[in-house]
Amino acid sequence: MTAPFILSPSLLSADFSRLADELAALAAAGLTWAHLDVMDGLFVPNITFGPPVIAALRRVSSLYFDTHLMIERPERYLAAFRDAGADLICVHAEATVHLERTVAEIRRLGAAPAVALNPATHLSAVEYLLPELDMVLIMTVNPGFGGQSFLPFCLEKVRTLSAMRRERGLSFRIQVDGGVTPGNTAALVAAGADVLVSGSAFFGHPPYKERLDVFHAAAATQAS
Ligand code: DX5
Ligand code: ZN
C-alpha cells in the first residue's frame, strides 16, 4: 500500500494566455494544489511572474497556492507574495543569508513556510530548521526551466530526509520538483515524498482528471 500523495501541478507548463481557465480545470479535475514558479532572472536564468499575477489568480481560484520563489533575497518580497494570496511560501536556502529569520517571517505573515534545496545543496543546510518548517522541497533538477530530466541521485536525498523526519518525530512535508513523471512516482513516494510537483508531464497530457489518475495508478501499481 502506497502512502497517499498530493500532486501539485506546476503552472509553468500551463497555457499562460489562459491561466484562470487552467486553474478552474485543475479544480474541476480534483486537484487541490497549484505550484507557482516565481523566477527573477538572477537566482535562475529564467523570468516568469510575480505578485500581481498571483493576486489576479487568487481572485479566481481557491486552490492552495504553493509558491516556489526562485529569487535572490526573497525576504524583500515575502509580504508582497502573502498579500497576493500565497498560501505556502517556499524560499531557496541558497538565496537568503538569514534563513531562520526568513522562515520566521513567512510564518508571522500567516503563510506556511518551506525551504527548497538545489540538487547539489546538502541537507545540512536545513537540518537545524526542520522543526520550524511545514515543507522541504528537494529539487530534482537544477531550477529554471520545465521539461528537464530527473536527477536520480536526488532520490537518496529524499530517503535520507524522510529518515531524519521519522527519527526526530517531525511532520513537515517532503516535496519533489523537476522531471517528475508517472515513471518515477512510485520510487519518489516510496522514498518518502508527500507532494509531487509536475509541469510538463502533467499539463502535456490532458484531460487533467485522467492524468491525475495515471499518477495515482503509477504509485499504486509500481510500488512493491
Ligand atoms: C523548475 C521548476 C519546476 C518545473 C517543473 O525550475 O521549479 O516547478 O516547472 O517542471 P517539469 O515537471 O516539467 O520538470
Ligand atoms: Zn517549482
TrEMBL record:
Cofactor: record remark: Binds 1 divalent metal cation per subunit.
Q: Which cofactor does it need?
A: Co(2+); Mn(2+); Fe(2+); Zn(2+)
Entry binding sites for substrate: S10, H68, G144, F145, G146, G147, D177, G178, G179, G199, S200
Q: Record-annotated residues binding a divalent metal cation?
A: H35, D37, H68, D177
The answer to keyword Isomerase applying to this record is yes
What top-level class of enzyme does the UniProt entry assign?
isomerase
> Is the keyword Manganese assigned to this protein?
yes
Q: What is its EC number?
A: 5.1.3.1
Q: What InterPro entries does the entry give?
A: Aldolase_TIM, Ribul_P_3_epim, Ribul_P_3_epim-like, RibuloseP-bd_barrel
Cross-referenced NCBIfam families = PRK05581.1-4, rpe
Q: Which family does it belong to?
A: Belongs to the ribulose-phosphate 3-epimerase family.
The protein, known as: Ribulose-phosphate 3-epimerase
